[in-house]
Write a structure and sequence with these properties.
single chain; about 140 residues; mainly alpha
Length: about 140
C-alpha cells in the first residue's frame, strides 16, 4: 500500500512539472510572437515611409476660372453665339435623327433596296446549291447503271 501512495503523490508532481513546462513554453511562444509582430510592423512602417518619400502627393488641380456673366444664362449644349447657325444645326440634327430612325425601321428607299439585294443574293445561293445537288444526283445515277 505504501507503494501505491508514493505513486499517487509522484503522479501529481509529474503533472505539475509538465504543466509548469507548458506554461513556460506558452510564455516563450507569446514573446516570440510579439517580437515577430513588432518586426513586421516596423517593416511596414519603413516601406510606407519609403513609398511616401518616393512619390510626392499629387498637386490639386487649379480651379477653373469662373464663367462670364452671360454664360450662366445660356441653355445647356453647344452654342456658337450665332442664332442662324444654331438653328441650322438643330435642323440637321432632327433630319439626321429621323433618317437614322427610318433606316432602323426599314421604311426608307435605301433600306428597301438593301433588303432587295440581300433577298436576290439568298436566291442565287439557293439556286447554286440546288444545281450542285442535282449534278451530284445525276452523277450518282450514272454510276448505278
Amino acid at each position: 500500500m505504501a507503494q501505491r501512495e508514493q505513486e499517487k503523490v509522484a503522479a501529481p508532481v509529474a503533472q505539475t512539472a509538465s504543466a509548469e513546462e507548458v506554461r513556460k513554453r506558452a510564455e516563450h511562444l507569446k514573446k516570440q510572437r510579439d517580437l515577430i509582430i513588432n518586426q513586421r510592423k516596423k517593416q511596414r512602417d519603413a516601406a510606407s515611409a519609403a513609398s511616401a518619400a518616393a512619390a510626392p502627393p499629387p498637386a490639386a488641380p487649379a480651379a477653373p476660372p469662373p464663367p462670364a456673366n452671360g454664360a450662366m444664362h445660356r441653355g445647356a449644349g453647344f452654342s456658337s453665339g450665332d442664332p442662324t447657325s444654331d438653328a441650322h444645326r438643330a435642323r440637321l440634327s432632327v433630319a439626321l435623327a429621323s433618317s437614322m430612325k427610318a433606316s432602323l425601321l426599314g421604311s426608307d428607299a435605301t433600306s428597301v433596296d438593301l433588303e432587295h439585294k440581300m433577298e436576290q443574293h439568298h436566291r442565287k445561293i439557293d439556286l447554286e446549291m440546288t444545281k450542285a445537288q442535282l449534278r451530284a444526283e445525276a452523277e450518282a445515277e450514272k454510276g448505278y447503271y
